[in-house]
Specification:
Blueprint lengths: L1 E6 L2 E3 L5 E9 L6 E7 L6 E6 L5 E3 L7 E6 L4 E6 L8 E9 L2 E4 L3 E5 L2
Length: 115
């Protein structure tokens, strides 16, 4: 069993930065593809960024050039560095781990971008 715990969310002004962390406990190894998703009120959950076990990354068009996903397998932690934040980035951000048929989700952390 794998547990994912996100941290680092909060209130930030437009143009500001936040770094989210996702700490995994249990038998999570570097073979999992990790991802960050977000869900804003009244909207569907959307994929923000992914990183494979080999370090390949992918991003939603809306965050390209502003967000960076990274992982530290030794610490079982995945990060999402978010720069140049916009009000439309406001959402609950959740961490996801996938390998084959296995899927794990964190509880999510709120990010609010507002002046």
């Amino acid at each position: 069993q794998v547990q994912l715990v996100e941290s680092g969310g909060g209130l930030v002004q437009p143009g500001g930065s936040l770094r989210l962390s996702c700490a995994a406990s249990g038998r999570l190894t570097g073979t999992y593809t990790m991802g960050w998703y977000r869900q804003a009120p009244g909207k569907q959950r959307e994929l923000v960024a992914t990183i494979t076990s080999g370090g390949s990354t992918g991003y939603a068009d809306s965050v390209k050039g502003r967000f960076t996903i990274s992982r530290d397998n030794a610490k079982n932690t995945v990060y999402l560095q978010m720069n140049s934040l916009k009000p439309e980035d406001t959402a609950v951000y959740s961490c996801h781990a996938n390998r084959a048929w296995l899927n794990y989700w964190g509880q999510g952390t709120q990010v609010t971008v507002s002046s």
